[in-house]
Model the fold of this input.
Amino acid sequence: MRKTASILLIALGFTALAAAAPQGKGPDAEKRQRLIDVVRKLEQSPLDKGLQRDGDQAMEWVMTAPGGQMKICGKALGDFYQEKPEYKYHQRILTQLMLASAAFAFEHPEQADDEMAEYTASMESALKVYSAILKSKPDARSKALDTLAQTQADGKLASYIRQRCGPERQVSEVRVSARALPRQQAGAPAEKAQAQPKPAEKHSSPEDRQRLVAVAHKLEAAPLDPALGPDRAWAVQWVVAAPDVHAKVCTNLLADLRRPRYKYRSQITDQLLLSSAAFLIEHPEKGDGVAAQSVGGMEGVLKAYSAILKADPQATAKPLDDFLEKQKEGQLAAAVQEIAKGCQ
Done:
């Protein structure tokens, strides 16, 4: 299901960058509280279909909510992510990690810089979900989650996360808009769609970096080609795992695609991530700042958007049309950098 599949990318080690939102009352405060309430309810009844829909809606909101952020350490989940066969409720666990991370950020703004606390709180929430799943589905066990649950029972979860995710070990930190880990897409061969990237080592291989760049450019030219689905899935996973490619993407750049929801928002937001990573690989001398990467990423997005319009001329989006106009005027970099100031 594309909608919920579009949520999973951030679960492996990403931070959503967005402008800080003032705390207080009003619609945003109500939505923040609703997110927190949904997280708590899902901890008790994660398989409830109605709550799952509420969770998906909450994720859609937090993707572009000013001040929304998710910080999740992929290294703490390495064994779970690599489990074969994939855990039956893999998606529910990852979604809970993301929602719980966002809820923690809203509940504890005073701990905004305490990544270890946020990693631990989100893992504790995910383990509550796992425990609730086992109550209704006793056979739905995950060896990796059983190990984490035992670590928690021994009172060692926080130290385990610090060991895996502390500053000296956190080599695969990616900052990105809350986007999706594309799962198998319609028309894509099942085996290829499930292909996993190689586990990250100290350095990614030149071959994989070259492949990532090639895939990003192919998708810029043909973002709607279903045959590229497996390549898209591989590329997104690879960016997550690569220890030396730190993509940083500002969610504010595409915030206006949320309402009304753009028909091809999934493809566009995937493209922002992949083109940003490709830009970083192709231009390492330009550093790893969010502004420079965002400009490179948006250039890739506009190529993909132009290709979409050739295939579907009615699929226009005013925010992207505005960026195209800025590009024609030679003002794209300035416009993107101005927006990205809120994501530094």
Remarks:
- The two ends are 33 Å apart (CA to CA).
